[in-house]
Structures are given as structure tokens and as C-alpha cells.
User: Which sequence fits this backbone?
């Protein structure tokens, strides 16, 4: 009996059709099988039964798969699993290594170099967990249930809210773009033999939300030095491909969207990022000391009186300093009077000395008030300098961390044939910028392996 393709429904499950089967032509219209009323009913029942059997088989396979996933997820609230998670490195691992060393002896007496398998580790962990006090077991069980509950809530919230739109989350995704997409691109190249690139662009959170691009290429040409598509003509790539995309992206994102995409941690430190070592006020202390010394008198005795006023600070200290200044001024006045004044009467000389002493006392009092105001200004200026120095130092630390992170990301991007170009919103890439980016791409291509 010759069995055609249309009459395969007549065969039982254990029967095989005669080979070879007729050649299948997808463009040929199906030829209806000449059947009477009873045969059409039999064919309908056979096809319906076969469809139901296939559906049951698929459901059985899916149920087995779901059961496996459910049992794996149920391990989250298992106290034994929690005990292994928390204490494997400190409590379980040493016991596992010791017992494995005792039991890992081959039949010929040689040591087994294999590592302990999962059933052996679990058996040791179960034994250690059973030996714990009941209170500690209850605590571990409570922590396991709490972590499982929190994990379920986080999963449900993530499924409900969708991908996070925070700048931190998006920057993490951008950083992992190369590691995620590179195997896919390589697989497409291996299976299809096609070569090309993937190019994405938009606000980059790390660069304050400025428009940037991320691209990855796969495959190279037949030149003496195999070159991927972005490196074949770098000027045209930067101008006609990347530059053209950035022009379009400048119209696809508003200024508010770009500012919202920026990482918030970079904003307070922008003032300290663009300072140089020469801007640090290292000589402020010297200038302050010189200015304070110039404002004081050159006489050592007056300096001592001002220092005593600063130390006392009270009314009594000021009065004592004033008296000392008056006595010293009198002594100075007497010396001057002896040297310059003519030999007149005693009363005349005494009156001149008293006038000089009174003027010196008033001068000292005014100098003390000026010193107080100068001291307040110096303290305010010192506070401003300290605040500025702190901001500069904080900016330096951030710049160092930023440079280290950028170097790490550049290494990762170079390994996966990535290159990032940044152009502010509404600004086109100039020839100089394109040349710099070309130089960077050239260095990355020399240092990174081909995908």
C-alpha cells in the first residue's frame, strides 16, 4: 500500500511510512484526498486526537520545568540553605576540606585530586546545621524567611515597575553594554557570516547627561592590517555616521531630559574638577603673616602690648596694657625731650611730656580697635580659604576617582571594541575633536583584540 503525505494519518503510532517520502514542494497547492463521509470523520478524529496528545506532552514538559524552578526558588526560605550561604567559608569549608582529604583516596592508594562535589558538601553542611542549638537554628530560619520575603517583594516590584530609569541604573547598564552584546554580535557573525556594527546614542549619566554614543563592531576587512568598519575611514565615520546620529539625537532629547539623566554626585564637585595645582593657596599663610606684621608697629614694646591685649581680652587686660604703653611713651618722651628740647623750665618740659604721652595713649587705643577689626577680617578670610581648600581637595579626590573609573571603563570598552564619543547638546563635532577621537580609536584598536 502506497502511503502519500496526505494519508499519513492512517498509520498507527508504531508504524513507519514507506521511504523515501514524496518531495515536499511548499509552493504546490495541497491536493485534497478523495475521501467519503466516514473517512473524513475518521481523519478529523485522528487529527484531533493527535493534537490533544501533542498538547498534553508539551504541558507535561512545561510542568516539569516549572516544578524545577519552583523547587529552586523555594530554597530561599530553607534554613539549611541560609546556613550554607552565611557560614560556608568560615564554618563549613574547613570541615569539608578535612573530611574530603580523609576520604579522597583512590583504589591504588593515590590521592584524589578532584574537588569535593556538591552532594558531599551538602551532606557535611546538613550535619553541621543539625548540630547547632535549636535557638540558633530558629534564628537562621527566621532570617531565611525574611530574606525570601524581601526577595519576592523586590521581584514583584521590579516586574510591576519595569526597568529603573534612575541615572545610576542606566549608567550601570551602559557600562555593561559591551559585556552583554559582544557575545551576541560574535554569534551573529559566526552563524550568518555578516559583518557590521551596533550604534546607540543618548544622554550619558556619567558625563552630566551630555549626548554621547556607544558602538560595537564585529568583523574586519581583507586589508593587510584587518580593520573593522569604524576604523576603515575614521574621518567619515566620525562625521557621517557618529556625527550625523548626534545631530539627530540633539533633536530627540530635550534639555530637561539631559539634565535629569545626569548623575547627581557630579554636580556639587564641578567647581573643583577644573582647578590646577597652581590654584591652591599654598602661600596664604605667608601673606597673612606678613600683612599682620606690617599692620603692627615696628617697635618690639608695642608688639608685646598688643599680644598681651589679645591674650587678656577683658577690660582689665586692656587697662593694664594702656598703662604700660603710657609709661613707655613717657620714658620715650623724656628721652626725646632731653635730646631735643632746650633747657627751659621743669613745668614746661613736664607739660610737653604729658601731651606726648596722652597722644600716644589715644593712638594705642585706636590701634587696638583697628587690630580687633583686622583680626575679625583675618579670621573670616581664613575660614573662606579653609573652605576653598576643602572644596579643591574634594574636587581632586573626585577627579582621581573619576579618572580611575574612566580608565577601567575604557579598558572594558576597548576589549569589546567599544568607543564612546561625547558632544554637548546642539554642538557638532569639529575636525579637531574628530581627530582626537580617531587617535583614541587607533590606540584602542592596537591594544584590543579583534572580536
Assistant:
Amino acid at each position: 500500500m502506497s502511503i502519500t503525505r496526505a494519508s499519513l494519518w492512517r498509520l498507527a503510532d508504531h508504524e513507519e511510512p514507506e521511504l523515501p517520502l514524496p518531495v515536499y514542494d511548499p509552493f504546490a497547492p495541497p491536493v485534497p484526498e478523495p475521501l467519503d463521509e466516514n473517512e473524513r470523520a475518521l481523519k478529523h478524529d485522528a487529527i484531533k486526537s493527535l493534537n490533544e496528545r501533542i498538547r498534553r506532552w508539551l504541558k507535561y514538559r512545561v510542568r516539569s520545568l516549572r516544578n524545577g524552578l519552583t523547587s529552586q526558588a523555594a530554597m530561599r526560605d530553607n534554613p539549611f540553605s541560609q546556613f550554607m550561604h552565611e557560614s560556608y567559608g568560615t564554618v563549613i569549608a574547613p570541615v569539608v576540606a578535612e573530611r574530603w582529604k580523609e576520604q579522597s583516596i583512590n583504589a591504588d592508594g593515590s590521592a584524589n585530586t578532584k574537588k569535593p562535589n556538591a552532594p558531599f558538601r551538602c551532606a557535611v553542611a546538613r550535619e553541621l546545621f543539625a548540630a547547632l542549638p535549636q535557638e540558633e537554628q530558629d534564628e537562621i530560619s527566621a532570617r531565611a524567611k525574611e530574606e525570601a520575603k524581601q526577595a519576592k517583594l523586590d521581584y514583584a516590584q521590579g516586574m510591576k515597575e519595569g526597568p529603573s530609569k534612575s541615572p545610576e541604573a542606566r549608567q550601570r547598564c551602559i557600562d555593561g553594554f559591551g559585556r552583554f552584546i559582544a557575545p551576541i554580535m560574535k554569534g551573529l557573525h559566526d552563524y550568518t557570516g555578516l559583518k557590521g556594527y551596533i550604534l546607540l546614542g543618548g544622554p550619558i549619566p556619567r558625563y552630566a547627561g551630555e549626548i554621547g554614543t556607544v558602538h560595537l563592531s564585529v568583523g574586519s576587512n581583507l586589508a593587510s592590517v584587518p580593520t573593522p568598519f569604524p576604523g576603515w575611514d575614521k574621518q567619515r565615520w566620525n562625521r557621517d555616521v557618529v556625527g550625523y546620529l548626534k545631530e539627530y539625537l540633539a533633536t530627540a532629547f530635550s534639555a530637561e531630559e539631559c539634565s535629569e539623566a545626569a548623575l547627581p554626585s557630579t554636580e556639587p564637585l564641578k567647581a573643583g574638577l577644573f582647578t590646577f595645582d597652581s590654584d591652591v593657596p599654598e602661600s596664604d599663610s605667608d601673606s597673612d603673616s606678613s600683612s599682620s606684621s606690617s599692620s603692627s608697629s615696628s617697635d618690639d614694646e608695642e608688639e608685646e602690648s598688643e599680644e598681651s591685649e589679645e591674650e587678656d581680652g577683658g577690660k582689665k587686660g586692656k587697662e593694664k596694657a594702656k598703662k604700660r604703653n603710657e609709661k613707655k611713651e613717657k620714658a620715650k618722651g623724656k628721652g626725646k625731650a632731653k635730646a631735643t628740647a632746650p633747657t627751659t623750665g621743669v613745668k614746661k618740659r613736664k607739660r610737653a611730656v604729658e601731651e606726648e604721652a596722652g597722644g600716644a595713649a589715644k593712638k594705642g587705643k585706636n590701634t587696638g580697635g583697628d587690630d580687633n577689626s583686622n583680626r575679625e577680617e583675618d579670621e573670616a578670610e581664613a575660614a573662606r580659604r579653609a573652605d576653598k581648600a576643602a572644596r579643591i581637595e574634594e574636587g581632586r579626590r573626585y577627579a582621581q576617582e573619576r579618572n580611575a573609573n574612566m580608565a577601567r571603563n575604557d579598558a572594558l570598552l576597548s576589549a569589546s571594541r567599544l568607543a564612546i564619543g561625547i558632544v554637548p547638546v546642539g554642538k557638532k563635532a569639529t575636525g579637531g575633536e574628530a581627530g582626537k577621537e580617531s587617535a583614541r580609536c587607533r590606540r584602542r584598536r592596537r591594544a584590543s583584540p579583534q572580536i
Q: What stands out?
A: The CA atoms of residues 419 and 440 lie 9 Å apart. Strands lie at 196-204, 210-218, 418-422. The chain is about 65% helix and 5% strand. The mean pLDDT is 73.
